[in-house]
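Chapter summary example.
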Amino acid sequence: MLTEERHSIILNSVNSNKSVQLGELCELLNASESTVRRDLNALAKKGLLVKVHGGAISVNDSFVYEEQDIEKKSKLFNDEKLAIARYAASLIDDGDFVFIDAGTTTEKMIDFIPDKDVTFVTNAFIHAKKLAQRGFKVFIPAGEIKLATEAIVGAECVSSLQSYNFTKSFIGANGISLSGDISTPDRNEASVKTAVIRNSRMVYILADHSKFEQITSVSFADLGRVMIITDKLGDKKYLSATNIKEVM
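The structure predicted for these 248 residues follows.
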């Protein structure tokens, strides 16, 4: 198959489906991964698609390349985050075994958690301190500290979390999209979130409205696997793909 023909098929697939996986393209084109990667690189350089880990997305979706540090995030959408955090905290019941993810919205949950018999696991050392100060029993996983997000990450962290069975988990996200599902820019953080979600009975994604229609480099959860708690949903198309609770 000629290069131009492969490029045409790739673009048709990406634009029709909004996103496409590398393996799907290899099968569609009957071509090797190295060939398809070269094609994706060439099309990305021309601005015809956005190359992401494991495939490509349409240029019509907003792709976020970098993650803001915790200090910058803490200054954004404060009222919205407080409303989300307050509702999320109200979902915690006596006897729950809860994971709370690192993040500015999840941190705000702590002040609203009712005084109940609850045990927590968190990969955020700031969260762990605040939960302990509230009198809760708290566990933190082993791993490496990522200063930008004040999170514990890495293979040791994932390994530490795999033995737990959470009744509820509250997870932060950087991007939510119909084509990219729920994503974060950092592979290490994505691995932690994936491990927690796999071992959770109920999964809540805490995300203000700015996270919708955004895609970051690593997807960690399918929309259909979680419930999203947000302030106000701008585009109602998401209601057909996942459970969403609006709190403002």
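To summarize the output: The chain has nine helices and 17 strands.
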